[in-house]
Amino acid sequence: MKRVFLISAAVAGLTFGLPAQSAEVTEAMSQKHAEAYVDYRQSVFTLLKSNIAPLGGMAKGKIDYDTQVMQTNGMRMEQLAAMLSDYLRVDTSDSGVESSAKASLWSNFDDVEGKIADLKNAAANLQTVAKSGDESQYRDAIGKLGSTCKSCHDDYKMD
After folding, report:
1. pLDDT averaged over the chain?
2. Is 153 labelled as part of a ligand binding site?
3. Domains of the chain and any CATH numbers
4. What is the pLDDT of residue 9?
5. Does the annotation list 152 as a binding residue?
6. Calpha distance 57→34 (Å, rounded)
7. Do 157 and 101 contact (CB within 8 A), yes or no?
């Protein structure tokens, strides 16, 4: 039930008062603010994970390729990636709120935004490849998408 609330909160935050994307990282204004942004981030990452999981199964040959799933999940991941900058831009590192984010995320935010752009591009590419119907390109397109996630995790997520 908590997970549903968190996802609902992230979606609600898109329309009810979250700041528009700005060029700078800001520190959480309060404990409550930090808790909210950690929840929003975790919700978006949960949705990203739910969309990449079947793609990984396809790339590993455990699930048959399904172009509709690749197109749909690629589109969702592209949309979710567009939200990441807003939710990652609030620095919660000194708030005391438990999070898997390394403090270096906020001191290297230009790099983080570059990784977000890579995710968006890889998700768009997956959709294009799926529409092409060329199965010989599916595994590579899925792999490129997964590597963008891994790149950010390697640099900015605690184990």
Report:
1. 89
2. yes
3. 2-10+29-156 (1.20.120.10)
4. 47
5. yes
6. 34
7. yes
